[in-house]
Amino acid sequence: MPNQTHDDITDLIPAYALGALDADEAAQVEQHLTTCARCQADLAAYEAVTDMLPQAAQKIEPSPALKKRLLAQIQTTNTAVPPAPSRWQTWIDNLHQLWRTPRWQPVLALAAVAVLIAAFILWQQAPPAPQQIELTATNAAPDAEGVIEIATNGRATLTVNGLPPLAAEQQYQLWLIEDGQRASGAIFSVSDTGAATVTITAERPLATYSAFGITIEPAGGSPGPTGERVLGHNL
User: Fold this and answer.
1) Do 13 and 107 belong to one domain?
2) Domains identified in the chain, total number
3) 105 and 175: one domain?
C-alpha cells in the first residue's frame, strides 16, 4: 500500500482507535504518529471516548474449571464440522470487508466518529450521583447509623437506623453546624425498630455546612442542643 498523506492518516485515526484497521494501515498510522503531535492529540481524544464503549470492557480471565471443560470439549469435537459463525461475528467480518473497500472507508470513518461523539455526549449528560454524608454513632447510641443524602436538585434527606425509640415527651433533632453556629434541620421520632427518613430543611445549601449532629431534645425541638448527642459528622 502506498504511503498515506497526512489527511489520509487523519481520516484513519477514528478507525485506528476502534481497532478496525488492517495490519498495513495500522502500521502506517503508527509510523505517522511517531512524528505528528496533532494526530497524537486526536488519537488521545478518540481513545478517551472509546474507553467508555462496550469494546473497552475489561477482559476477565476464565476460571481453571472453565478452561478444563472447554479443553475437554475441544478434544472431543476436534473432528466435527466447525460451527456456523454467529450473527455478531458475521457482522464484524462484513464490517472488516467494507473497511477494506476504499469507497466505504469514508462512510465507516464518519459512522465511527458519530458513535464516539454520541457516547461522549451521553457521558457528559449523565446526572451526577447524589452526595452522601455518613454520620458516626456515639456511646449514647452505639448501634445507630445515619446518612444524609443531598440530591442533585438540592433536596436533602436524613435516614437513620438503630436509634433507641424515645418517650412521648422527647424527639431527636438534627443540627446543621457552621462556624460554631447551629441551626435545626429536622425534628423527628423513630419507629419501634429505630428507623426514620425525614426531609431536611435548611436556609442555605446543605453542602455549605461543615458539620452535623443529632441530639435528644424535648418534643417539638429546642432552640439549641440540650441533650445527649447520638450521631454526628465532623464533630
Assistant:
1) yes
2) 2
3) no
SS (H, E, C) the chain: CCCCCHHHHHHHHHHHHHCCCCHHHHHHHHHHHCCCHHHHHHHHHHHHHHCCCHHHCCCCCCCHHHHHHHHHHHHHCCCCCCCCCCHHHHHHHHHHHHHHCHHHHHHHHHHHHHHHHHHHHHHHHCCCCCEEEEEEECCCCCCCEEEEEECCCCCEEEEEECCCCCCCCEEEEEEEEECCEEEEEEEECCCCCCCEEEECCCCCCHHHCCEEEEEEEECCCCCCCCCCEEEEECC
- pTM beyond 0.90: the answer is no
Determine which of 7-11, 194-198, 213-217 has the lowest per-residue pLDDT on average.
7-11
Q: Is residue 207 part of a domain?
A: yes
pLDDT digit string, tens, across residues 201-210: 998 888 889 9
Give per-residue pLDDT as tens, 75-90.
665 555 566 666 667 7
Residues 120, 170 share a domain: no
Residue 196 resides in a domain: yes
Asked if the structure places residue 34 within a domain, the reply is: yes
State pLDDT tens for residues 124-140.
Answer: 665 566 788 999 999 99
Which residue segment(s) compose the domain that 100 sits in?
Answer: 6-125
